Amino acid sequence: MARKRHKAEEIVAKLRQVEALTAQGRPFTEARRPISVTAVTYYRWRSEYNDRKGDKVKRLKELEAEKNFFRRAVSDLTIKTRILKEAAGKSF
Question: Residue 34 has what DSSP assignment?
Fold first, then answer.
């Protein structure tokens, strides 16, 4: 069975849905059933996304993507610099 990758906004919405159902008095196992995730996944999501709102989660993901982009750019430049230094050192 293929795994589904949930977006951060979807996760926050699903967490709120479970919280609303448990606030209405449903047991946790019944409240978790509509979102179709295991208890372990729910608790992992809750620890990671509980205090965040949808717009903050989206911004966080954008910043993480930007950080990864810059990290790759720096590593590429470092590799190119090392190659040029080695080439310049051998030609003399």
Answer: G
Encoded tokens for 83: 């190659």
CB within 8 Å of 30: residues ≥ 6 apart: 21
Tens-digit pLDDT profile for residues 13-66 = 899 899 999 999 999 889 989 888 899 999 998 888 877 666 777 788 889 999
Tell me, rounded to whole angstroms, the distance of Cα 61 from its chain centroid: 6
Q: How far apart are CA 8 and CA 74, in angstroms?
A: 27
Query: How open is the CA angle 68-61-58, to the nearest 5 degrees?
Result: 155
Do 34 and 21 meet the contact criterion of CB atoms below 8 Å apart? yes
Q: Which position has the token pair 């949930």? A: 6
Q: Do the beta carbons of residue 29 and residue 46 sit within 8 Å?
A: no
